[in-house]
Amino acid sequence: MKKTAKWIQHTHLFRRDEYECSACGLRSDKPYRTCPGCGLPMKGSKYDPSWVDEMETIDAIFDD
Questions:
Q1: What is the pLDDT of residue 43?
Q2: In sequence order, what DSSP letters do the residues of 12-26 get, joined into one string?
Q3: What is the per-residue pLDDT for 1?
Q4: Residue 12 belongs to domain spanning
Q5: How far apart are CA 2 and CA 37, in angstroms?
Q6: How far is CA 48 from CA 13, 14, 20, 27, 62, in A?
Q7: Per residue in 5-16, pLDDT tens?
Q8: 5 close to 37: Cβ distance less than 8 angstroms
Q9: Which residues on neighbouring strands pair with residue 10, listed in sequence order?
């Protein structure tokens, strides 16, 4: 069985999305077919709504 990895998509409020390899942790600005860090082929992706934590911080600052 061939080993594969997934891109974990991190979405932010005021920054571009970034993608993290689930195998080696390399962060990239776009999802490649194979990870430039570990060379594993990518099979699908997962979504990580990082923007929610960022929004909570902004809400706390403005006391909403």
A1: 92
A2: -SSS--EEEETTT--
A3: 62
A4: 5-62
A5: 17
A6: 13, 15, 10, 13, 25
A7: 999 998 887 888
A8: no
A9: 18, 48
